[in-house]
Specification:
One of its GO terms (cellular component) is cytosol. Strands 1-2 form a two-stranded parallel sheet. The longest helix has 17 residues, at 57-73. It contains three helices and two strands. The chain has one domain. It is 51% helix and 16% strand. The protein is α+β, with helices and mostly antiparallel strands. The relative contact order is 0.22. The chain has helices at 20-29, 31-41, 57-73; strands at 7-12, 49-54.
Length: 74
């Protein structure tokens, strides 16, 4: 969330972790629908603009885990 509360970053990862970029592009394209739905569900004065970002933390964690396993096997 930005300091002025006008934009918020939403980290997303599709099930299976594949095609992150495609998922982010689709969510960005239809972000107006997401905001519209959220505005009906949330009782807040201002709904921030949503910026969707691919969450690569699981991939990073997997790489670290593989490196640790490789190091243990040596």
């Amino acid at each position: 969330m930005s300091s002025d509360l006008k934009s918020a970053r939403a980290y997303v990862i599709p099930l299976g972790g594949k095609e992150i970029e495609k998922t982010v592009n689709i969510l960005t394209e239809f972000s107006y629908l997401v905001r519209k739905t959220l505005s009906k569900k949330l009782d807040i004065k201002f709904l921030p603009k949503l910026v969707f970002v691919g969450d690569e933390s699981f991939e990073y964690a997997e790489r670290i885990e593989k490196l640790i396993k490789q190091n243990k096997s040596k």
